[in-house]
Amino acid sequence: MKFPSLFFSIICRLPFLNKVSFFFFLVFATLSLSKANSQVVSEEFKRITDSLIKVRPTTYEELDSVLNPKRTDTIYMRYFNNEALIKKYPIGQSYALNQLGRKYRDISNYPKAVALHEKALEAALEANNLEFRVYSLNMLGVVYRRSDAIKIALDYHQEALELAESVNNPSNDLKKSINVSLNSIGNLYLILKQYDIAIAQFKRAMASAKELGNKLGLAINYQNIGECLEYKGELEEALHYYRTSLDYNNEIDSDKGRVICKNSIAQIYIKQNKLTQALEILEPNLLAAESLGDMSIVAVININMGWALMELKQYAESEKYLVTGLEMSKKHHLPSYIAHAYNYLSKLYTYKGDYKNALEYYQMAEKFNEEINSEVNRRYINDLIIKYETEKKTNQIEALARENEFMNLRLRKKTNTLIIGALGMALLTFILYILYRQKELKNEKQILTLEQSMLRSQMNPHFLFNSLNSIKLYIINNEKKNAVHYLNKFSKLVRKILEASSLKEISLADELETIDLYMNIENIRFSHEINFTVRVDEPIDEHTVKIPSLILQPFLENALWHGLSSKEGEKKIHLHVSRENEKFIQISITDNGVGRDASERIKESKILKRKSIGIDITKERLANFSKDFENSFQVEIIDLYDSNKVALGTKVVLHIPTH
């Protein structure tokens, strides 16, 4: 039976007079208890309160230098708040309400903490005190960040940062608030897994903390950078930052800081499979966290205990800690810890072979992760940061403009000179623009000319007439099947050439298909003596690799008519596509022809000399393509010889950048 029910049943059983007596006893007891509570506040503190309210300090530092020993005591802070309210001292109210809010935040009672910080902000606005406004906004942001309300948290921290940085010569307290804002914005990026951006914010906050000699700020930022490095997988570096943070926390004797750092160090040990060492840290650390009363820390240590025990295959104990951590995270609205707990429970049930529960826990973890790290949140934060940086720069420009206003008055005599100079600059800019456009148009014209030349080289009359004559020969010889077969290939080749000529680049697969058609048709004239083979190395996906359209045909044509046409015996062309490195693929075309020297001599002896312009056009096209790439296209032509310096053929190697 619950206490109120038991209490009520006892009263109901008493006679009427006894009930009356009992009622007056309760009233007396309540008044006595109230009087006892009022006496909890010492006379010395009451005198301090009266003195402060008479003097009415306006800065956080002045109030905190006196009230710091009692600021974590809710009875004293409530008393100070009530006295400040009665005597209309809103700055004192803002201080006390913020300390009360921090106390409730540290025991994970976030709704109560938010209500107190909002009242503190109202008091700061009533007092028109910017320092306490900034402090209250940051405190609200921290509470919302702890409960993973990312958008609201960022709104508060951005507003606090803008207000603090609007002051030309900020006080030390405002500088500390700037440090808090930067650190909190970094933490928001940490939640969203934007680790490099988060580290940049933490380093800015760390520089500010060093300037102020703020060891607590240094401890916090070292811890946060360690978390980013841990998530990035840089465990040893993260461990160094955690240990540095622990050193600072030991120096300032921060129990909470020590607990957080030790939990992080244990977490690294778990990831390094040093499970026994991790548990040796976590077990006493859990007791220390429970004595602090911060349920968010207690929750995450329980989860880490469960994780370590799970890896040691102590499944029953592991589940107990994980469920405890999960329930605490749910109770205190900690979505990221809820997601962690579900993840480990999913893994635990996988180890146990219970795949149904494992899947359910995994789905729950994914649900919470999506809520925390949604694309909407990321875009929202990026937009706001960009907006803030833009506004900040605009404000700086406006401030500089005001400072230079007096100087501009003295420089009015030079206005005409400046106007002439500006007109001259405008004219020069216009001329440069015209020249630039002319150059662009010239380049475009050159590219168009190259494309037309390329198409002419692919569709030259010799090739067309010879191909048609070869097909006609099949018809005359009544080889209908061959005639139809090669006519289909010829029409398909023409279509592919026309389609490719309108494209800047095509897939390697399309280019190889076009080349195969070309070689089939050319082989008719060589009485099918050409043994043409293609090999593409396994890691290369022909359909995703892009190359300039129609660049291989001129090199194959050159191999056919200058290398193999004069050769006796076996005639081979081998095309090989390979991965040169991360940035280049390599296409090599190797023939076993007579070689370039012999080919040149044969060409000189001919009355009708055939000049190949296709390769020159292709080289010019590749040079133009290189302008759009980080790396340039390269073409190598290698003469092949045996050990007796007898020509074995020619090898053309194209080095093609992939990005």
TrEMBL record:
It comes from the Bacteria. Residues 451-529 form the Signal transduction histidine kinase internal region domain. The keyword Secreted does not apply. Keywords: Membrane, TPR repeat, Transmembrane, Transmembrane helix. TPR repeats lie at residues 219-252, 339-372. Gene3D superfamilies: Histidine kinase-like ATPase, C-terminal domain (3.30.565.10), Tetratricopeptide repeat domain (1.25.40.10). The chain crosses the membrane at residues 418-436. The keyword Transmembrane applies. Pfam families: His_kinase (PF06580), TPR_12 (PF13424), TPR_8 (PF13181). SUPFAM superfamilies: ATPase domain of HSP90 chaperone/DNA topoisomerase II/histidine kinase, TPR-like. InterPro entries: Bact_2-comp_sensor_kinase, HATPase_C_sf, Sig_transdc_His_kin_internal, TPR-like_helical_dom_sf, TPR_rpt. This is Tetratricopeptide repeat protein. It comes from Arenibacter algicola.
